TrEMBL record:
Residues 19-53 form the HIT-type domain. One of its GO terms (biological process) is box C/D snoRNP assembly. It is found in: Cytoplasm; Nucleus. This is Zinc finger HIT domain-containing protein 3. Transmembrane segments: none annotated. Keywords: Cytoplasm, Metal-binding, Nucleus, Phosphoprotein, Zinc, Zinc-finger. PROSITE patterns: ZF_HIT (PS51083). It comes from Trichonephila inaurata madagascariensis. Thyroid receptor interacting proteins (TRIPs) specifically interact with the ligand binding domain of the thyroid receptor (TR). Requires the presence of thyroid hormone for its interaction. Interacts with NUFIP1. Interacts (via HIT-type zinc finger) with the RUVBL1/RUVBL2 complex in the presence of ADP. It comes from the Eukaryota.
Length: 143
């Protein structure tokens, strides 16, 4: 009888994951936070003492900004209301005015929006726009 060649292949492949901290011992555990493998409490403590233990970043879907433009009044206007502003006919028409847009850009970067609005209320296009916005916002206030 010839020796069975197949026996040579009968080697169990055991995947041994080494400890990710000491790189020597077989790892038995996984860090619940970063999933690194470790062999012992001692290695775990070493791991925790370092700054390598970080939760894998969850993939966060970034939604595109729904707000058409930014606008600040003395009240904080919530984004839904800002969105309805964007659909208002009068507001849209106002926004076609380059001068108004310039004013709004300045308002956005202003450190004191309240003051800025007061100072510019004598600009007809600006005061019209503010009134249009306020009427839209107040219409929405049903509570
Ligand atoms: Zn170890
Ligand atoms: Zn960890």
């Amino acid at each position: 009888m010839a020796p069975d060649d197949k026996s040579d292949l009968d080697v169990k492949v055991v995947r041994i994951f080494k400890c990710g901290i000491c790189n020597e011992n077989e790892s038995k555990y996984k860090c619940p936070v970063c999933l690194v493998r470790y062999c012992s409490v001692a290695c775990y403590k070493t791991h925790k003492a370092g700054d390598s233990c970080k939760k894998p970043e969850p993939v966060v879907e970034v939604k595109p900004a729904a707000v058409v433009y930014e606008y600040e009044t003395e009240d904080t206007v919530n984004p839904e209301k800002l969105q309805t502003l964007g659909y208002d006919f009068d507001v849209r028409r106002d926004l076609e005015n380059p001068h108004l847009r310039q004013l709004l850009t300045e308002l956005n970067s202003s450190t004191n929006p309240d003051q800025f609005i007061k100072e510019n209320m004598n600009e007809p296009i600006f005061s019209d726009f503010v009134l249009h916005c306020l009427s839209v916002i107040n219409e929405e206030k049903d509570e």
